[in-house]
Write a structure and sequence with these properties.
Layout: E1 5-10, H1 29-42, E2 47-52, E3 81-85, H2 96-102, E4 107-113, H3 115-128, E5 133-141, E6 145-146, E7 152-153, H4 155-166, E8 172-174, H5 176-181
Amino acid sequence: MSNPIVLIIIDMQQGMSWPQAGERNNPDAEHQIAELLAHWRASHAPIVHVRHLSTEPESLFWPEQEGVLFQDAFQPLADEKIIEKSVPDAFIHSDLEAWLRDQETQALVVVGVSTNNSVESTVRSAGNLGFNTYVVGSACFAFEKDDFFGHARSADEVHAMSLANLHGEYATVISQDEAFALLL
Protein backbone atom coordinates (compact mmCIF):
# COMPACT_ATOMS: atom_id res chain seq x y z
CA MET A 1 0.00 0.00 0.00
CA SER A 2 1.60 3.27 -1.04
CA ASN A 3 1.13 6.26 1.26
CA PRO A 4 -0.46 4.12 3.94
CA ILE A 5 -2.74 5.10 6.75
CA VAL A 6 -1.12 3.57 9.82
CA LEU A 7 -3.07 2.35 12.86
CA ILE A 8 -1.15 2.96 16.10
CA ILE A 9 -2.43 1.02 19.12
CA ILE A 10 -0.98 2.37 22.35
CA ASP A 11 -0.34 0.38 25.54
CA MET A 12 -3.06 -2.24 25.26
CA GLN A 13 -1.29 -4.34 27.85
CA GLN A 14 -2.65 -6.71 30.47
CA GLY A 15 -1.97 -4.30 33.35
CA MET A 16 -4.37 -1.77 31.85
CA SER A 17 -7.25 -4.17 32.49
CA TRP A 18 -6.37 -4.82 36.12
CA PRO A 19 -8.27 -3.09 38.96
CA GLN A 20 -4.99 -1.57 40.23
CA ALA A 21 -4.90 0.60 37.10
CA GLY A 22 -7.79 2.65 38.53
CA GLU A 23 -11.34 3.72 37.72
CA ARG A 24 -11.68 4.23 33.99
CA ASN A 25 -14.20 5.35 31.41
CA ASN A 26 -15.35 3.91 28.11
CA PRO A 27 -15.71 0.20 28.88
CA ASP A 28 -16.35 -0.42 25.15
CA ALA A 29 -12.92 0.87 24.08
CA GLU A 30 -11.34 -2.58 23.75
CA HIS A 31 -14.16 -3.70 21.47
CA GLN A 32 -13.75 -0.56 19.34
CA ILE A 33 -9.98 -1.06 19.12
CA ALA A 34 -10.41 -4.75 18.21
CA GLU A 35 -12.79 -3.79 15.37
CA LEU A 36 -10.31 -1.24 14.05
CA LEU A 37 -7.49 -3.77 14.28
CA ALA A 38 -9.54 -6.33 12.33
CA HIS A 39 -10.40 -3.72 9.69
CA TRP A 40 -6.75 -2.68 9.27
CA ARG A 41 -5.66 -6.32 9.02
CA ALA A 42 -8.36 -7.12 6.45
CA SER A 43 -7.21 -4.09 4.44
CA HIS A 44 -3.54 -5.13 4.71
CA ALA A 45 -2.79 -1.67 6.09
CA PRO A 46 0.17 -1.12 8.43
CA ILE A 47 -0.25 -1.47 12.19
CA VAL A 48 2.02 -0.33 15.02
CA HIS A 49 1.68 -1.79 18.51
CA VAL A 50 3.18 0.35 21.27
CA ARG A 51 4.14 -1.25 24.58
CA HIS A 52 5.18 0.58 27.74
CA LEU A 53 8.14 -0.90 29.65
CA SER A 54 8.37 0.93 32.96
CA THR A 55 11.60 1.86 34.71
CA GLU A 56 9.75 1.74 38.06
CA PRO A 57 9.87 -1.71 39.75
CA GLU A 58 6.43 -1.20 41.40
CA SER A 59 4.75 -0.44 38.05
CA LEU A 60 2.15 -2.69 36.45
CA PHE A 61 4.37 -2.42 33.36
CA TRP A 62 7.69 -3.47 34.87
CA PRO A 63 9.35 -5.82 32.33
CA GLU A 64 9.18 -9.58 32.78
CA GLN A 65 5.82 -9.73 34.54
CA GLU A 66 2.32 -10.29 33.19
CA GLY A 67 1.11 -6.68 33.31
CA VAL A 68 3.55 -5.70 30.57
CA LEU A 69 2.26 -8.33 28.11
CA PHE A 70 -0.10 -7.39 25.29
CA GLN A 71 -3.72 -8.28 25.97
CA ASP A 72 -4.73 -11.41 24.05
CA ALA A 73 -7.00 -9.50 21.64
CA PHE A 74 -4.11 -7.21 20.67
CA GLN A 75 -1.28 -9.65 20.07
CA PRO A 76 0.85 -8.33 17.19
CA LEU A 77 1.23 -10.45 14.08
CA ALA A 78 4.68 -11.13 12.67
CA ASP A 79 4.45 -8.38 10.05
CA GLU A 80 3.19 -5.70 12.46
CA LYS A 81 5.59 -3.14 13.94
CA ILE A 82 6.24 -3.12 17.71
CA ILE A 83 7.52 -0.02 19.48
CA GLU A 84 8.71 -0.28 23.07
CA LYS A 85 8.89 2.85 25.20
CA SER A 86 9.69 3.85 28.76
CA VAL A 87 8.13 7.34 28.58
CA PRO A 88 4.60 8.28 27.49
CA ASP A 89 5.61 9.48 24.00
CA ALA A 90 6.12 6.60 21.52
CA PHE A 91 8.36 8.80 19.35
CA ILE A 92 10.99 9.33 22.07
CA HIS A 93 13.95 6.91 22.06
CA SER A 94 12.39 4.81 19.27
CA ASP A 95 12.55 4.45 15.52
CA LEU A 96 8.84 5.26 15.09
CA GLU A 97 9.31 8.50 13.17
CA ALA A 98 11.93 7.00 10.82
CA TRP A 99 9.78 3.91 10.23
CA LEU A 100 6.69 6.02 9.45
CA ARG A 101 8.67 8.16 7.02
CA ASP A 102 10.12 5.03 5.35
CA GLN A 103 6.53 3.85 4.86
CA GLU A 104 5.69 7.20 3.22
CA THR A 105 2.86 7.45 5.70
CA GLN A 106 -0.15 9.48 4.60
CA ALA A 107 -1.86 9.57 7.99
CA LEU A 108 -1.94 8.09 11.48
CA VAL A 109 -4.96 6.75 13.34
CA VAL A 110 -4.19 6.57 17.06
CA VAL A 111 -6.12 4.56 19.66
CA GLY A 112 -5.42 3.09 23.09
CA VAL A 113 -4.68 4.18 26.60
CA SER A 114 -4.51 6.34 28.42
CA THR A 115 -6.04 9.24 26.57
CA ASN A 116 -4.41 11.92 28.73
CA ASN A 117 -1.02 10.26 28.98
CA SER A 118 0.54 8.10 26.28
CA VAL A 119 -2.12 8.80 23.65
CA GLU A 120 -1.97 12.55 24.16
CA SER A 121 1.83 12.66 24.37
CA THR A 122 2.30 10.58 21.22
CA VAL A 123 -0.35 12.49 19.27
CA ARG A 124 1.17 15.85 20.21
CA SER A 125 4.53 14.70 18.84
CA ALA A 126 2.92 13.27 15.70
CA GLY A 127 1.20 16.58 15.01
CA ASN A 128 4.34 18.57 15.75
CA LEU A 129 6.32 16.32 13.37
CA GLY A 130 3.83 17.10 10.60
CA PHE A 131 1.92 13.82 10.43
CA ASN A 132 -1.76 14.03 9.51
CA THR A 133 -3.10 12.48 12.71
CA TYR A 134 -6.51 11.21 13.78
CA VAL A 135 -7.63 10.04 17.21
CA VAL A 136 -10.67 7.75 17.51
CA GLY A 137 -12.19 9.05 20.73
CA SER A 138 -14.36 5.98 21.29
CA ALA A 139 -11.28 3.73 20.97
CA CYS A 140 -9.38 5.39 23.82
CA PHE A 141 -9.93 5.53 27.56
CA ALA A 142 -8.61 7.33 30.61
CA PHE A 143 -8.53 6.93 34.37
CA GLU A 144 -9.89 9.22 37.06
CA LYS A 145 -7.33 11.71 38.31
CA ASP A 146 -7.05 14.70 40.63
CA ASP A 147 -6.45 17.96 38.81
CA PHE A 148 -3.63 20.36 39.67
CA PHE A 149 -5.73 21.97 42.41
CA GLY A 150 -6.59 18.64 44.04
CA HIS A 151 -10.12 18.36 42.69
CA ALA A 152 -11.15 14.83 41.75
CA ARG A 153 -11.91 14.47 38.04
CA SER A 154 -13.80 11.52 36.66
CA ALA A 155 -12.29 9.39 33.95
CA ASP A 156 -14.89 10.84 31.54
CA GLU A 157 -13.76 14.37 32.40
CA VAL A 158 -10.07 13.49 32.00
CA HIS A 159 -10.80 11.77 28.66
CA ALA A 160 -12.90 14.66 27.33
CA MET A 161 -10.33 17.30 28.28
CA SER A 162 -7.53 15.34 26.66
CA LEU A 163 -9.48 14.97 23.42
CA ALA A 164 -10.21 18.71 23.54
CA ASN A 165 -6.49 19.41 23.99
CA LEU A 166 -5.68 17.43 20.85
CA HIS A 167 -8.55 18.26 18.48
CA GLY A 168 -7.78 20.94 15.95
CA GLU A 169 -4.22 21.61 17.03
CA TYR A 170 -2.38 18.28 16.93
CA ALA A 171 -4.99 15.95 15.46
CA THR A 172 -8.57 15.52 14.40
CA VAL A 173 -10.74 13.51 16.76
CA ILE A 174 -12.97 11.22 14.71
CA SER A 175 -15.58 8.50 15.14
CA GLN A 176 -15.11 4.79 14.56
CA ASP A 177 -17.06 5.00 11.27
CA GLU A 178 -14.88 7.88 10.07
CA ALA A 179 -11.80 5.79 10.83
CA PHE A 180 -13.18 2.84 8.85
CA ALA A 181 -13.89 5.16 5.92
CA LEU A 182 -10.24 6.25 5.76
CA LEU A 183 -9.34 2.86 4.26
CA LEU A 184 -12.09 2.71 1.62
